Task: structure prediction
Amino acid sequence: MAYKVQWSIRAQDDLKALDPAVARRILKKLKWVFNQEDALAFARRLEHSSSGDARFRIGDYRVIISVVTK
Result:
């Protein structure tokens, strides 16, 4: 399944505020994950969350994602 990644304004701001080396690590990992056949296999589903559907752990950071199907 192909995924299209769309960043929220807040996510962009948060990423810019991080140390550049940390930001590169997060982006590199996300690029790898979303190039996999089933990227959501690497995510933990969130229950009862209004902020997103799943999360990825990347070092000390968590990336929250929302999945939109068309």
About this structure: The longest strand covers residues 54-58. The two ends are 12 Å apart (CA to CA). The CA atoms of residues 17 and 23 lie 9 Å apart.
